[in-house]
Design goal:
Residues 1-20 form the signal peptide. By secondary structure, the chain is mainly α. The chain has helices spanning 2-20, 24-48. The protein has a domain at 24-49. It is built from two helices and no strands. It starts with a helix and ends with a helix.
Amino acid sequence: MLKRVLAVAIMLGMFGTLTACNTVAGVGKDVQTGGEKVKDAAEDVQKKM
C-alpha cells in the first residue's frame, strides 16, 4: 500500500515537472532569460566598483 502511494506521488510530481515547460524551446527561453538576469546583475555590480 505504501509503495503504491509513493509511486503515485512520484508520478504526479513528474507530470507537474513535465507540464511546467511545454516544449524544449520554452526551457531554452527560460534558461536564456535567467542568464540575462545574471549578466545584468554582474554588470551592475561591476559599475558600482
